[in-house]
């Protein structure tokens, strides 16, 4: 029989649990060729799909700096708020100490207030003297001008302290931003910064949000209305027809792919054991008790009945 006989023999050995007494010779040949890798196992109402992360988040830094420590590794699961990377904060901490000193130093303000109050008393005395004719108007005008300038200096010193407080708040935020935390929960990808690298080179880390997963189905345009209107949708992952998984409809793309004549329909999948990149088939089912085409209940011996 040659190579063809060997492939068929392998297919027969692999498929006994998937074949029942109700399986036709045509179905059996279809499954054998599928296992042998000749063609995909597609039945009416089934469509190819892919499994992807729900989101891919590239984590960047709000400030320019150099990575001092990397606190995670590729493949690690993180929660939102977990620290990922610590930047070199020596310069930021020095600026923070300087900002705290400037914001707390009110000596110039206190001196300007004393000078203003002293000039106010002087102007009051000269005003009384002017009323009695003992002081010339010019002397009183000079005193009033000095008082106005001193009052303006007080306001200027107050504004300087307010600016120092704002600069201090900005510096504190910069110090806090030297510790980069995960914005979402997910798995750390391989694109991860190394200690000593600068933040301007690209993302510090990539987080793959895999719970839930996103399933993209490629549905012919003519089949889209019936497919979307189905009561529920199930997928078969990596040819495991015995254990189909339910998915939740999310949305359908607004434009079709002209080359393939299909429209992408998106679902979400709650299945921690499934990895992104797994191949799958999807079908829309008319009611809750229906089974995915090509899968079905098992008898007591574990043999699956075809639909």
Descriptors for this entry?
307 residues; 6 helices; six-stranded antiparallel barrel; signal; alpha+beta; Multidrug resistance protein MdtA-like barrel-sandwich hybrid domain-containing protein; MdtA-like_BSH; disordered C terminus; OB fold (Dihydrolipoamide Acetyltransferase, E2P); three-stranded antiparallel beta sheet; efflux transmembrane transporter activity
Terminal residue distance: 32 Å
Helical residues, percent: 25-40%
Helix vs. strand class: alpha+beta
Count of DSSP H/I helices: 6
What oligomerization state is this entry in? single chain
- Biggest sheet strand line-up: 1-7-10-9-8-11
**Morphology call:** elongated
Mean pLDDT: 83
Q: What's the alpha carbon Rg, rounded to whole Å?
A: 37 Å
Give the DSSP E fraction (strand runs of 2 or more residues): 25-35%
Number of extended strands: 11
Order of helices and strands: HHEEEEHHHEEEHEEEE
Biggest sheet architecture? 6 strands, antiparallel, barrel
Q: Report low-confidence residues grouped into runs of 5 or more.
A: 1-23, 25-40, 297-307
Organism: Rhodovulum sulfidophilum (Rhodobacter sulfidophilus)
Domain Multidrug resistance protein MdtA-like barrel-sandwich hybrid: 55-207
Signal peptide: 1-21
Keywords: Signal
């Amino acid at each position: 029989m040659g190579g063809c006989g060997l492939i068929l023999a392998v297919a027969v050995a692999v498929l006994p649990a998937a074949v029942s007494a109700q399986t036709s010779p045509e179905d059996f040949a279809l499954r054998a060729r599928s296992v042998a890798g000749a063609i995909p196992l597609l039945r009416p109402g089934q469509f190819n799909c892919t499994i992807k992360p729900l989101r891919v988040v590239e984590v960047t830094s709000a400030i320019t700096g150099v990575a001092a420590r990397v606190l995670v590794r590729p493949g690690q699961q993180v929660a939102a708020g977990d620290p990922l990377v610590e930047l070199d904060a020596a310069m930021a901490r020095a600026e923070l100490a300087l900002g705290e000193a400037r914001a707390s130093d009110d000596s110039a303000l206190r001196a300007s207030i004393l000078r203003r109050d002293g000039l106010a008393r002087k102007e009051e005395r000269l005003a009384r003297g002017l009323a009695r004719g003992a002081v010339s108007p010019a002397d009183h005008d000079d005193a009033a001008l000095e008082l106005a300038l001193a009052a303006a200096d007080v306001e200027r010193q107050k504004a300087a302290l307010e600016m120092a407080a704002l600069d201090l708040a900005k510096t504190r935020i910069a110090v806090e931003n030297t510790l980069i935390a995960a914005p979402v929960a997910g798995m750390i990808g391989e694109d991860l910064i190394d200690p000593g690298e600068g933040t301007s080179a690209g993302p510090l880390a990539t987080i793959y949000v895999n719970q839930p997963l996103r399933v993209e189905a490629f549905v012919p345009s003519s089949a889209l209305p019936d497919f979307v209107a189905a009561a529920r949708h199930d997928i078969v992952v990596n040819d495991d027809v015995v254990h189909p998984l339910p998915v939740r409809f999310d949305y359908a793309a607004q434009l079709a792919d002209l080359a393939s004549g299909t429209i992408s329909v998106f679902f979400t999948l709650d299945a921690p054991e499934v990895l992104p990149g797994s191949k799958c088939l999807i079908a829309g089912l008319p009611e809750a008790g229906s089974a995915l085409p090509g899968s079905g209940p098992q008898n007591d011996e574990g043999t699956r009945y075809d639909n």
